Every structure is written in C-alpha cells, then in structure tokens.
Amino acid sequence: MSLFADWRWMLAPMLACLILSLTHVYLGIHVVSRKVIFVDLALAQIAALGAIYAVVLGYDPHEPGDALAVALFSLAFTFVGAALFSLSRMKNERVPQEAFIGIVYAAASAAAVLILSKSPTGGEELKEMLVGDILLIPMSTIVTDVILYSAVGLFHFLFRRRFLAISLDSAGAEQAGINIRLWDLLFYMTFGVLVTRSVAIAGVLLVFSYLVIPAVIAQKWKDTIAARLYLGWTVAILGSLGGILWSFYSDYPTGPAIVMMLAAFLVVSSVTYYLRHAERPARAVLNVAAMLLVGFGFFWTLGQFGKVSAEPTDMTAASPVDLYLGELESDTPALQAEAISALAGLGGDSRVVPALTDLLDRTDSAQVVESLVEVLGELADPSAVPSLRAAASRDVDPFLKLSIATALADLDDPSGYRVMLGILDDENAGFARVQAAETLSSRAGEDFGYDMLDSSDANADALRRMEDWVRSQGG
Amino acid sequence: MTRAFIIRAVLLASVALTATTAGAQEKIQVVTTLPTLRALVEEVGGDRVDVTSLAKGDQDPHTVTPTPVLMRRTREADLLIENGFSLELWADEVANGSGNSKIFRGTPGRVVAGTGIAALEVPSVLSREMGDIHPQGNPHVWLDPLLAKQEAGNIVAGLKRIDPQGGAYYDARLADFSQRVDVALFGEELLGLIGVEKLTRLAWSGELHEFLTSNQLGGRPLIERAGGWLGRAAPFAGAKAYEFHKVWAYFARVFDIELTGTIEERPGIPPGPQYLRDIIDRAGAEGVSLILVDNFYDPKLPNNVARETGATVVILPDQVDGEPGVSTYFQLMDYLVDTLVAAASEGPRG
C-alpha cells in the first residue's frame, strides 16, 4: 500500500517516458541517419518564437480561450521551419546542413530575446513556459498526447518505405522517383509537431537525449532498421525506468536523472562494443583499465584541491549570554531586539539587567524600548527603576509610555501609576487611554468605570477615584 | 532713460532665460535599479528630479541586462539608487561599466534604499557564525508599506546630499507621502485611535492582527475600525499560504498571512519527486489555501501543487510596473490587496 502510495506520483511521468521512448527512438534513427541531430532544438525554438509572436499580437497564453490561438501560431511557425529545412537540403552539399540548422537555432533564439525585450509585459515567463518538466505532467495531458503521437506514428508507419528510403539513401530514393522535397517537408512537419509537443512536456534536454542516445547505440550494434528499433526501444525504456528509480529514491530532478542514465548506457555500451570487437582483447581490457584509472586519478587529484574552509568557531567557548550581550552592542535594532528576548530567559546572570538598563539609557528605537521594558518588568530587578523613570519622562508615544509605566508598576514603583494617569489626561492618547484605565483597574482590583467613548463629565468621577487610589499607593 | 530701460529689460530677460534653462538642466538625474524605487523617487522628488529604472516591473530583479539607452542614462546620472540586501547583484557591474564615478559604491551619489531596515529571514546568531550564504536576509522590504516609507526616507537623504537647496522641498514631500501611506494602510480612524508609532511596532513584531482582534472599543473589536488596505484585507487575514520564491514575508507580516512553505526548492532547479510530494502532503495537512507566485515565474509547478491540493494560485506583481495600470506605489498595493481578496473569496476548489 505504502509503496503504491509512493509510486502514485511517478505513474504519469513513467507513462510519458514510455510514449516518448516509442516515438523518439524511431524518429531518432531518421535524424541520426540524416545527420541533422540538432534539428529538434531548432524546430522547438522556432515554435517558441511563434508563441512569443502570438503574445506580441495580444494573445495571453494563460487565458484558456487564447491557448488554441497561441498553439496555432506556434504550429504555423513550425511548418515554416519545416519548409526551410526541406529546402536547405542540397544534393552535393558544400556546406553541411547541420550548419544551417545551427544558424536557424541561433537566429530564432535571438529574435525571441529581441521581441521580448520590447514587449511591455507578460513575456518574461514565456521562455520557460514552453519548456516542461516531466515530473509535473498531468494524467489528462498524457491521454491527449497518446492520440497525437499515435496519429503521427500511424502516418509514418503507412509511408515508412518512402521516409526510410530518403533518410538512408537519398540518391537512391531520387532515382526511384520519390519527390524528395515533398517527403522531406512532410517529415519535418510531422517531426516538428511532435518535438514541439515533447519539449513542452519533457524539456529540451530529455527530448534531445531520447532522440539521439538510443539511436546512436542501436546504429552501432545493429544493421537492419527493425533490429535497431528493438534495441533502441529497449535502451530507452530501461534508461527511463532506471532514471526514474534513481530520481525517486535520491530525490534528484527527474528529467536530468534520465538523461544521465541514458548517457551511462551509452558509455557502457561503447566500452562493451570496443572490448567485443577489439583485435587483441587483452590489450583492449588493459586500455579500458588504464582509462578508468586516468579518469579516477583526474577527479581524485582535483578533489584534493578543494577550498579549505576556515575552522568553524568553537561555539562552546562563548556562552549564549556572552553572545547576546555582544548583540546588544551591535547598534542594529533588529539584532538588539532579538538578543533582548533571548536574554529574558537568562536573567540569572548578574550582567543581564545592567546591560539592559544601559541600552535603555542610550537607544532611540521605540521597538527596542518596547521589548526592553517588557523584559525588565518580567525580571523584576529594582535596580532598573531609575532608567525606567528616565525613559518614562522622555517624549514618546502614549502606548510606549504605558509599556514603561507597566514595567515600573511591575517593579512596585508607584511612579508608574502616575504616568498612567498622565496618559488618561492626554486628549490625543486615543486607545492608549482605554488600556491605561484597564491596567489601573486590574492593579487596584476595582472597576473605576472609565469609558473613553463617554463624555468627560461621567469620567471625571472615575478619574478622581483613580487619582485617590494612586495616591494611596504612594504615587 | 529709454536706453537704461532697454538695458534693464534685456538684462532681466537674459536672467529669466538663464534661470529657466538652468532650471531645466538642474533637474537631478536619478537612476534606480527597480521600478518600485523609481515610483518612490517620483513621490519624494517631485519635479526636481528626472528618474529612470533599469529593470522593468515584470522582470526577475536578480537578472537584468540593461540596454544602450539605459546605460546612457546611467553615465549621466547624479544618483544611483538600489534596494540592497544583495538583490541587485548587477548594480555594481552597471555602475562600474558606466564609468560614472559619481555613482560608484561608497560615493555620495549611491543610495542603498534598504539601509537600516531590519531584514526578515536573516539567519540566526548561531547559523550566521557558521557562515550562511544569505547573511543579509530577504530583500523584498518594499512590500511592507511601513518599510517603503523608510526606503523613501533613505532616498530623501541621498537627494539632499546631491541637491541641498531642495532639502525643505524633499522633506515636505516625504512627510506628505508618509502621511498618505499611513492613511492608505490603516485608515483615519485607526490612526487616530492608536497612532502610527504603536501600529508600526505591532506590525513589525507580527502582533498587529492579534492586538486589533483581541482589544475592543465600544463593544467592537478594533479591527472593525481599520480602513484602507488593512481593512480591505479582512477576507484573507489569517490565511495560510505557500509562496513560490521567498518574497512575501514583509507583506505577510503586515496583512497577517501565515507563510508555511516555499514551493521552489532551489532557484532555477526543478524539484525532486520526494520534495514535490512532501510540499503537496503538507499543504493538505496544514490547510494551505493560497499559493503566491510572482508574475515572472513559470506557474507550471505551483499550478501542479494547486491541482493536487485545491489551493488557489495567485499570480502577483512584486514591483511597480509589474502589471498594466500599476505605475505608482499606491496602485501596486491596491492591486495586491484586491487580487488577494478576489482569490480568497473564490474559496478553495475541489
């Protein structure tokens, strides 16, 4: 049960990986044979440019009603890109098509930056929006994607002979009377639709790896298309599963984990291939061992040059009281306030109260005064009275005055009550008067009947009785 | 006599002419890193300053690439104002790249608006000793209106260094701005009852809402006397929220939102599966109802969390100019409060 509950999160990513494996290994065999490895990146970038253009024309990709329009712009741009790539194939190429693909990629990326730099708002996140994360794929997306990918797959299955003929032997295909430009256009159009969708759900890195790594391994080991397909599918599916497992148990991001797993498959397969096909097997084993040793030595040696961090200061040497007393001297109110509340629990130390009163005498931060007087009231050390009296006589707001007065009262100094009476006399003290009256009432243990909202006539009597009580306390 | 008159007239005219041209040239050239700081400069600088922001409102302030026009403004600037707390790490690069020695770090032409502000999320004493990577804390101080006043005060101090004749003018505008912020935040009635000093202390110690709900006057809790943004914020007061990136601590402190988690594990790195599951489980257990996402981040991950938990994703600008129609500080706060009220009243989704 718990295992299933754990894995429920990975079900959608696993299904997505399965779909990507099945479709992209097949397309990858085409792409590797045609030597147009980076065409997927270029087409995805062109599709992104289309979406950005839609945003400039006023569509909002966040609005559900606009999403279709943005997708159609993207699709239109993809088709233009497909046309470009089918036209750029030359019979006797002096310049490799790969160069042209790279140029298209760079130009499309630069155009996107330029357009976004002038867009007044809402473009910034678009660049990321078009690149997905396989971990976040919702189940509903998988259903629609299965339909889309199956449709493209069926199309390729029906016309597989023509597509394969062009990819594997374009000269022969032309002699056989196949319209190369037309079928190239169809290839890049379907490929573009699929890859753009894949990048949106899985990210650029993962799509590229699914296209290229299994196809490269298969190409090396197998000669027929069918055999390559089966081996490629096996590699892709095992790599996905391994990557997902690794990501799940080590909590690494899923996409990059799968890419690294596929890359590891490639390394292992290449080494095996080398060992199997070497003319002198013993020598080959030695070479591999030497490579491993060099690789290990390289990282181990570099590891010795790690930055040596300074020894952490010995925290046991300084007691917490020392640390917090130091913070009081820092002149930063926030640090002081933090230290004050921490010192409240450490009042047993004889240095605490003098340090707090000292700060009360010199600080001009109301926030610091407020926390100081609260703690001094709690610690109830009479030696704080002179500093508190001095603080109460300064020109501070009525609430702060009340806090100081309360602390004085806590230290059994009746001058605190006198300060409270002063607040009650202050027309501008607002709600502080209510709190002063409440404090006096609770200390005296009798309700004086003061009501701030009442007219002053009714309160005059209450004030007189408070005055009498304060006098009886010696204030 | 006529001749003397003509000479005097010409003299007067020329004086007037130089005065006006001088007046036009004398405008203090200010460049700010962020558009919110630009808005604050406009509030306190009035027509004595000319101000431009290097970053745009919907940009991630961590990474900004200025254009040639902005670099020209920087070369001619008398004052460069940055927020500080290591938010705009590119500010020094821009200042040094401009070659304008008036605005280099440490010169009178350089203002760090966050100076003296007590940052939140600063590592505690002990972990600071251990060498934390963000010793200066959360930089998004302007999202607390009370701290925005403090930033405006630092800006005025900088303006007075460069333009001492304008001192009284800037002081008057600062006092006026502060007064308008206080009223817009608390409303006249609450301000009169409790006073801005006490309200500020309560807000900064995180006790404002507790104080206003537990104290009564005339049989009604004080919170009912709150006007302005605080009064309007009632529908989302006390709500629990996730944030995408650590941005909203200051805003949450004033408006009583409890931030219980951050969706982004590390900036720019996709989350691992265990982490994602953990935040989704925790959101359900804690009853998180809102997910605050700055409008320049990709909403895919928060949407995913929202779908699993029923919380509402709220896309918010964190800067002036972050959305169309948000070009002053007051419009920014209005927008934030209104958007959150709308999201909170939408209620949790199934």
Explain what the structure shows.
The complex is a heterodimer of chains A (475) and B (350). In chain A, 76% of the residues lie in helices and 0% in strands. With 475 residues, chain A is mainly α. The relative contact order of chain A is 0.07. Chain B folds into two domains: 2-179, Nitrogenase molybdenum iron protein domain (Rossmann fold), CATH 3.40.50.1980; 227-346, 3-Layer(aba) Sandwich (Rossmann fold). Helices cover 49% and strands 11% of the residues of chain B. In chain B, a hairpin with a 2-residue loop joins strand 5 and strand 6 (220-221). The radius of gyration of chain B is 23 Å and the shape is globular. Chains A and B meet through helix 1, helix 11, helix 12, helix 14 and helix 15 of A and helix 5, helix 8, helix 9, helix 13 and helix 14 of B.
What order do the helices and strands come in, and which of them pair?
The complex is a heterodimer of chains A (about 475) and B (about 350).
Chain A: H1 2-34, H2 39-56, H3 64-87, H4 97-118, H5 126-129, H6 139-158, H7 160-168, H8 170-175, H9 180-202, H10 204-221, H11 225-250, H12 254-277, H13 281-303, H14 320-328, H15 333-344, H16 352-362, H17 366-379, H18 385-393, H19 398-410, H20 415-425, H21 431-444, H22 456-472
Chain B: H1 2-25, E1 28-32, H2 35-45, E2 49-53, H3 68-75, E3 79-82, H4 91-98, E4 110-112, H5 125-129, H6 145-162, H7 167-186, H8 188-194, H9 196-204, H10 208-214, E5 216-217, E6 220-221, H11 228-232, E7 240-243, H12 249-255, E8 258-262, H13 273-286, E9 290-294, H14 300-309, E10 312-316, H15 329-346
Parallel strand pairs in B: 1-2, 1-3, 3-4, 7-8, 7-9, 9-10
Antiparallel strand pairs in B: 5-6
Helix pairs in contact in B: 2-6, 3-4, 6-7, 7-8, 13-14
